[in-house]
Each structure stands twice: as structure tokens, then as C-alpha cells.
Design a protein that fits this description.
Helix content is 57%, strand content 0%. It contains seven helices and no strands. The radius of gyration is 16 Å and the shape is globular.
């Protein structure tokens, strides 16, 4: 079974990942999981040790330990996100439904991704005052995008807007990583005030 959409990473196609998480009792879809992970990585969460997995289980699995297969998939996704964001060629891609899916579904997944990104990002970055003006603006824009309620009046315009927003979010996430995530080797500094 191979994807015909060349822009989609075979390893992490939206449909297959969502199905995988469903099979393992994870209620979040692929976009939500990818958004949270991206937010955590971009915000400077350390992926050393198990702290980030414990935090993620609080966010998407009601604090329950992940089965080994899920844990392995999450580690793989987090690693791919880190590599993609650190790539000078900007190879990082968001996990969203393929272009063959109805625009409404893609927009819903996009909103879920950005809301989840903000949750993952907020785990480490609660005070935005220390961020660069560009990054603060990008986060403010993400907050606004997360609140959008898309009405699709003109399919062509909506399609174009969708791709522009996806690209803007992708670049904004990389900007976050460049400013905050690259120095996450210093150890896990996650705020554990979720309970």
C-alpha cells in the first residue's frame, strides 16, 4: 500500500496514523498528536528520558502509560519532527489529511493541529515576554487561527487560503524551534502543573 501523494511522508500518513492511534485507544487524531509533539519540540522540551512521554500521556491518554507500540511510534514521530525542524532545507511537514480529502475535513484537522501545537508549546513556554517580536507575533497569529471558524463560500479561495495557512504555520513552527527548541539538550524543564 503506497501513498500517491508525494508530499506526504509515507511513515506518517494522516489516515494510517489516526487509525493506529484509534486501535491503541488514543482519542486524539494524527494532527492533534503531531501538533502537540511539534509544540513541545519547538518550545524546547527535552526528549531525553521519559518526562516528555509522561507529560504527553497526561495530555492525550488520561495519564495512562502508552503501550510499547505507541511509545515507539511517538518516539519516532518526535525524532522526525526534530530532524525536520533542524533541516536547513525546511523539510519539516505537518501531518494533515491528504489533498484528496474534503476541504472541510482538512480545515478541521488544521485547527486541531494548531490548537494542539499551542498546548504542547505552552508546556515549556508560559511567558512570551522573553521571545523575539517575530516569534510573539507568530504565536499571536496561531492563537487567532486556532479560534477561526471557517465558512467555505468560495471553494477555490478557501483552498488557496488553506494552503497559505498551512505554509505559514509550518514556517512559524520552525521559527519557534530555531529560537527555542535547538537548545533543549539542557535537560527537561517541563512544567508539571497539569494535574
Amino acid at each position: 500500500m503506497s501513498d500517491t501523494d508525494g508530499s506526504e511522508n509515507n511513515l506518517h500518513s494522516y489516515d494510517r496514523l489516526t487509525e493506529f492511534f484509534e486501535q491503541h485507544g488514543i482519542l486524539s487524531n494524527a494532527s492533534e498528536v503531531h501538533g502537540i509533539l511539534t509544540g513541545m519540540v519547538a518550545g524546547g522540551a527535552s526528549l531525553k528520558g521519559d518526562d516528555w512521554l509522561l507529560l504527553l500521556s497526561d495530555l492525550i491518554n488520561e495519564g495512562q502509560q502508552f503501550p510499547p507500540a505507541v511509545r515507539e511510534k511517538l518516539e519516532e514521530m518526535a525524532n522526525d519532527i526534530t530532524v525536520g525542524m533542524g533541516d536547513p532545507d525546511l523539510s519539516y511537514q505537518m501531518v494533515l489529511p491528504g489533498d484528496h480529502q474534503p476541504l472541510y475535513e482538512r480545515l478541521q484537522a488544521l485547527i486541531a493541529w494548531v490548537q494542539s501545537f499551542l498546548v504542547g508549546f505552552g508546556v515549556n513556554q508560559t511567558n512570551l515576554a522573553g521571545l523575539s517580536a517575530d516569534l510573539r507575533e507568530a504565536i499571536d497569529d496561531m492563537v487567532e487561527i486556532a479560534k477561526l471558524d471557517f465558512a467555505i463560500d468560495d471553494e477555490e479561495d478557501a483552498e488557496r487560503a488553506y494552503f497559505e495557512i498551512v505554509e505559514y504555520l509550518r514556517i512559524s513552527a520552525v521559527l519557534c524551534f530555531t529560537e527555542l527548541g535547538q537548545n533543549s539538550e539542557a535537560g527537561c524543564k517541563t512544567n508539571k502543573t497539569l494535574h
